[in-house]
Each structure stands twice: as C-alpha cells, then as structure tokens.
Design a protein that fits this description.
Rna Polymerase Sigma Factor, Chain: A; Arc Repressor Mutant, subunit A; 2 domains; 62% helix
C-alpha cells in the first residue's frame, strides 16, 4: 500500500488515517467478494468500503482476546494493514471474512497479552448438548435483554459481551461467531445460548425484568 507521496504505509495509524480520509469514488454497493476483487486489483475505494463495513466486527473479534479500547483499535488497524498487504494471497474472495478474522486473531496473539491464553481457553464450553441456532424470537429477546442490561448498567463478562455484541449488533449466527473466534459452530451455539441464559438470570435477579422477560414495574 502506498501513500500519497509514493511511499509505503508502515504503521496501523497510517492505514487508519488513509481509510478514514479516502474519498470513495464509487457507490458503496456490491457484495464483499466483489469488493475484494476490486481491492485486489488496486481499487483503494473498494478496500475503504471493506474497512468501514467490517472494522467493527473485527473489533468485536479481537475483543475476545484484547482488553482496552486503545489496544483493540490498534489491533483493528494492524489487521487491515496486514490484510491489504496480503490481499493478493487470498485465492477465494468468498472467504474474505474468515481470512480477515484469522489475521485479527494472529494480531491479537502476537500482541502478547497476558490473558490471551486464558481468554481463549474459556471459550471451550462443553458442547455435548449443543442447542439449535437461535430463531427470530430468541434473537429478538437477546436484543431486548442486551438493551435492558445497558440501561441497568449490568456488567457482562468479557466473553458474554463479545458474543452478544456479535449476535445483536452485527447479526452474526453461530457460523460467523465460530469463524471470528476460531471455535466450532456447535461451541459457538452453546456460548451464545449460555450468554443469553446468564444475562436473563442476572436481569431477573436485579428485578429489571419479570418472568416473562418484560420490563419490571418495580
């Protein structure tokens, strides 16, 4: 990736500033694979769109291993810098997101955070009785519970906050969560299910919701 002076971007901050300042010369349409193809051919505006479409989901992915907003922001920027440099190695544009999340995990790991191993290890829930993927009603309930938790200032565990954000903010299902966190789809379904159950119990215990899940009048 070259900067306007003809040199190469060498830091995450530079690539972030480049993406933030680039003028998109084309309408932001087209699926991810199409944008990847354009970016691989040198279309910077296409890569800018990819950055702005997926930066938040990458931030959610690294949040499972990195704490601190500034460290996460650095990891996101470094992820996209590496992705740009290695874009020509991606053989299947349809696999851009799993490939991008793999880069993000590597960035988080190489950061050498002391809690990386612990955070990764806590994701290995027992999947002997994996629940089915959430349906529309359960996802709607999770979104409602998440909103209630914010209003009541409920502090979620690092892992629960990550998967709930992925599901309610980015619309991730078990397959996408699994790709982002490098776990199995069944494992992701269990984690998401248990996060919803724990959140509901916490809100019930605090009297924020009633047994039906409706806001409490108390």
């Amino acid at each position: 990736m070259t900067n306007r002076a003809g040199g190469h971007y060498t830091s995450p901050k530079e690539v972030f500033l480049w993406c933030a300042s680039t003028t998109v010369r084309r309408v932001e349409t087209g699926d991810t694979a199409e944008l990847v193809g354009r970016a691989a051919r040198g279309d910077r505006s296409a890569f800018d769109v990819l950055y702005r479409r997926h930066a938040r989901s990458v931030a959610a992915a690294v949040a499972s291993r990195i704490s601190g907003n500034e460290d996460r922001a650095d990891a996101v920027q470094e992820t996209f810098l590496r992705a740009w440099k290695k874009l020509d190695t991606l053989r299947d544009p349809e696999q851009f997101l799993p490939w991008l999340y793999a880069i993000a995990r590597n960035v988080a790991t190489s950061a050498g955070r002391s809690k990386t191993r612990t955070a990764a290890g806590t994701l290995n829930d027992d999947i002997s009785a994996a629940p089915e993927a959430m349906g529309p009603e359960e996802l709607a309930e999770l979104a409602s519970l998440s909103a209630a938790a914010k209003g009541a200032m409920v502090v979620l565990s690092h892992r629960d906050a990550t998967v709930i954000t992925m599901a309610t903010t980015f619309g991730f299902g078990p397959a996408e969560i699994a790709a982002a966190l490098a776990i199995t789809e069944g494992n992701a379904a269990v984690i998401l299910h248990r996060a919803r159950v724990r959140l509901r119990k916490e809100l019930l215990a605090r009297g924020v919701i009633d047994e039906r899940g409706a806001p409490s009048d108390v």
